[in-house]
Design a protein that fits this description.
Layout lengths: L21 H10 L9 H9 L7 E5 L6 H7 L4 E6 L2 H13 L6 E4 L12 E7 L17 H17 E11 L3 H8 L7 E7 L5 E7 L8 H8 L26
Parallel strand pairs: 1-2, 1-4, 2-3, 4-5
Antiparallel strand pairs: 5-7, 6-7
The structure holds S-adenosylmethionine.
Length: 252
């Protein structure tokens, strides 16, 4: 198989492991004004609006320089908080939102592995392409390294903790259900797990985890897994850097 094409974006790193380096993100955000991972809002707006009410308190984890929070705000969701580990991203996001008059959106520098919020304070938590960062050095995706497992579990435990009793976690990702299931379905969590796909082919996954609604029957999830094709079939079609997050099953 041919290697993937070179990234079209100057700020893309040489190897995906750089995505775990906070300095990489600061340097990148110093140069880059906007980059949207995993498609723009219009591609999954219909899925998001099924789960968010105008009164929902929403946390976006790892906002980077995405326009997701602005799009949500324009769609009438006023109680928004964004966090990112990168101080550069946070400063630039604050300035951008202020210049557009979106004063109600809070933006904080914070680590998603140690969320600085009280228990049960958000109706919805959203992440887009942020959890994928934790998997870039995971090794075998069927049996990730212990360090990957502990980071992903820290992220998910924090999100579960800050969600209200019937809150919803939305994860927009490249991670296929068979690689996410062991984390999302860990016994410590009370959420149910559903997923949809979006994109022009079959590229991106939209997970909906509803706290307090876990059932012991995961048959729907299992049925959908059976019909998933290898993600590598689609890598030619992926946007810019998105292919760096893909898991090429043909190479395993
Ligand atoms: C792949 S980008 C996704 C950005 C944005 N969500 C989007 O859709 O375009 C990953 C983002 O996660 C942030 N990030 C990485 N590790 C983080 C952590 N531990 N806590 C919070 N944000 C983190 C990075 O700074 C970067 O903005």
């Amino acid at each position: 198989m041919d290697p993937p094409a070179a990234p079209k974006c100057d700020v893309a790193p040489a190897t995906a492991s750089a995505y775990l380096d906070p300095q990489y993100w600061d340097q990148r955000f110093a140069q880059e004004e906007h980059y949207e991972w995993f498609k723009e809002y219009s591609h999954f707006r219909h899925l998001i609006l099924e789960h968010i009410q105008p009164t929902s308190a929403v946390l976006e984890v790892g906002c980077g320089n995405s326009q997701l929070c602005e799009e949500l705000y324009r769609d009438g969701i006023a109680e928004l908080t964004c966090i990112d580990l990168s101080s550069v991203a946070v400063d630039k996001m604050k300035k951008r939102l202020l210049s557009k008059g979106y004063k109600g959106i809070k933006v904080l520098e914070a680590d998603m592995l140690d969320l600085p919020f009280e228990d049960e304070c958000f109706d919805v938590v959203i992440e887009k392409g942020t959890m994928d960062v934790l998997f870039v050095d995971s090794g075998d995706p069927w049996n990730p390294e212990p360090v990957t497992v502990s980071r992903v579990m820290a992220m998910l435990e924090g999100i579960h903790r800050v969600l209200k009793p019937h809150g919803i976690f939305i994860s927009i990702t490249f991670g296929q259900p068979h690689f996410r299931r062991r984390f999302f379905n860990a016994p410590t969590f009370t959420w149910s797990v559903e997923w949809r796909t979006f994109g022009d082919g079959f590229h991106y996954f939209f997970y909906i985890l509803k706290k307090g609604e876990r059932s012991s029957d995961n048959s729907e999830d299992t049925e959908k897994i059976e019909v998933l094709p290898s993600i590598s079939l689609f890598h030619e079609e992926l946007d810019n850097e998105d292919y760096l997050f893909r898991t090429n099953l043909d190479e395993m």
